[in-house]
Amino acid sequence: MEIKYFMMSFRYNKKNPSDFDLQKSSQEDIYVYQQDNSLWKPIQLYDLGWGKENGYYRLPMLTFQQLFNLLVISDNQENKYGAAAVIMDNYNDELFETCIKLFSKNINLTKYINVFKILQLDLPLNRSSILNKNYSEIEADYKRWNGLTEKVKSIISSK
Fold this sequence. Notes:
The structure is a single chain. This protein is of the alpha+beta class. It contains five helices and five strands, in the order βββββααααα. The protein has helices at residues 64-73, 77-90, 92-104, 113-118, 135-158, and strands spanning 6-8, 22-24, 31-33, 39-47, 52-58. The protein has a five-stranded antiparallel β-sheet. The two termini are 30 Å apart.
């Protein structure tokens, strides 16, 4: 059985820690999963179209590479969408570099189509931070992301 790294609601069907089979620990904002005594922390997760879903992540938080690998190989929907949400919120630069490396390799990328879709890489958005950047830097970031979007669209359409 696959290890759970994320627990999340779908269409806000879960709200309270008890809905996730979690109990408050002695530490602030830390909960205990009753089935294995693992520690969990609340987090807003993937936006399925009506706002970020309620959720929890297993402590400690995974690294970018671990999150990306989880997104690629997991069969658990909560793990997939949880990993995607954290990547999209915190690791856009690393995501861009990882995708560019994938595209530079001579491999079949069709196994990544669902990953690209969950990460919404088929949408032309500037995912880079805009803080302390001038207009030309922001525009350059958008063009980089748009170039990646075009590559993703070509992989999706070729399937």
